[in-house]
Amino acid sequence: MLQVNVELKERRYPIRIAAGLLNEPNSYAPLKAGDKVMIVSTPTIAPHYLATVEKALTKLGCSVDSVLIPDGEKYKNLESLNLIFTALLEKNHNRDTTLIALGGGVIGDIAGYAAASYQRGIRFIQIPTTLLAQVDSSVGGKTAVNHPLGKNMVGAFYQPASVIIDTNTLHTLAKREVSAGLAEVIKYGAIFDEQFFTWLEENIDKLVALDQQALEYCIQRCCQLKADVVARDETEKGDRALLNLGHTFGHAIEAHMGYGNWLHGEGVAVGMLEAAELSRMLGNISESDVSRLEKLIARAVLPTTSPDGMQSQEYLPYMWRDKKVLAGKLRLILLKALGQAYVTAEATEDQVLAAIEKFTQK
Q1: Per annotation, catalytic residue among 36, 93, 247, 331
Q2: Alpha carbons within 13 A on the beta-carbon side of 73
Q3: Domains and CATH numbers, the chain
Q4: Which candidate in 54, 177, 184, 274 is catalytic?
Q5: For residue range 331-358, what is the model confidence (pLDDT) as tens digits?
Q6: 168 flagged as catalytic
Q7: Is 184 a catalytic residue?
Q8: How far apart are CA 1 and CA 16, in angstroms?
């Protein structure tokens, strides 16, 4: 088993990574005999893993309930959040309950926010079952639901007690979802680690094919990079914002298309290319660097152009609502070099539009 620790000012929590962890009662620490648990999952994930988790927790001596909420980004909303609260109240769960998020990034986000809010905060554990959630959204304590006018607009920073990454869950994942996760993987190399970016160029085909050894190294490296930045900047006052490379553009695509029609990772993939092109226009990186990123994204079986019919001007209303806008300035994550990102408000709206246009379907 591999383990990465997220070191915070007041405490630490472990990320455990291995095949078969869901079957092992000891994987669920700090849970112990006598604890009450509510598992939050979906009708898609539950048939694969809910019974396995319930069996392990029952063997540990826990009292276990579960609630299923609808699948998909379009259901990451206040209505689904209320379904969790209702289940907790109907089953008489109180402050000593632990909430478990069993699923992808949507489940992690909404269950985490439910844990942050229910009776002013209860413990929760992340069990991410998608690659995107394993390498990114399950680590670091960002929890939220969407609003029709913007993604992740209602939420909180609330850290899990632990993260359990069973790589076997990736074998029931649709290929499109694997590729969506690889977008976030590529992001880590682009913003923090050029050596890892090069490793990805050499190993992306293995990751697409779910090679176990490549996956474990990849997930561990991504989690370590995420853990390091969260330890430095838990509530995104500084360089944690760098993790949002491509996200301002990508969130615009997701919102414009209707949540769930384009996967988060697909929007981020195109958004990274638009951010890279803007970085080139500002004199930071070369055409060759942009090309390397585009080729790697394409090999990960991800889109490299905006959705058919979406025009560059249609990005702007969503981008101006982004949480990184400050004092009327559009703050973007751009690249100084492959492996080095920075935050800037120097780009003009015309430059932003030109960068988007480069990767817009003609």
Answers
A1: 247
A2: 18
A3: 2-170 (3.40.50.1970), 175-359 (1.20.1090.10)
A4: 184
A5: 899 999 999 999 999 999 999 999 999 9
A6: no
A7: yes
A8: 7
* 120 flagged as catalytic: yes
Question: Among this protein's residues, is 256 annotated catalytic?
Answer: no
Outline where DSSP puts E strands in the chain.
2-7, 12-18, 36-41, 63-68, 97-103, 123-128, 142-147, 150-157, 162-166, 332-337, 340-344
Q: Are 145 and 81 spatial neighbours (Cβ–Cβ below 8 Å)?
A: yes
Would you tell me how many other CB atoms lie within 10 Å of the CB of residue 346? Answer: 11
CA-to-CA distance for 2 and 223, rounded, in angstroms?
Answer: 11
pLDDT digits (tens, 9 = 90+) for 8-46: 988 899 999 999 999 999 999 999 999 999 999 999 999
Residue 294 is among the residues annotated as catalytic for this protein: no
Other Cβ atoms less than 10 A from the Cβ of 19: the count is: 17
Active-site residue, selected from the candidate residues 16, 251, 280, 331: 251
Q: Is 257 exposed, middle or buried (0-12, 13-18, 19+ CB in 10 A)?
A: middle
DSSP letter string, 19-80: TTGGG-GGGGTT--TT-EEEEEE-TTTHHHHHHHHHHHHHHHT-EEEEEE---SGGG-SHHH
Residue of 54, 244, 280, 323 marked catalytic: 244
Q: Which residues are annotated as a binding site for Zn(2+)?
A: 184, 247, 264
Cβ atoms 271, 249 nearer than 8 A: yes
Strand order in the sheet with 36-41: 2-7, 12-18, 162-166, 123-128, 97-103, 36-41, 63-68
Residue 55: active-site member: no
Sign of the CA dihedral 46, 52, 53, 59?
positive
Q: Does the active-site annotation cover 221?
A: no
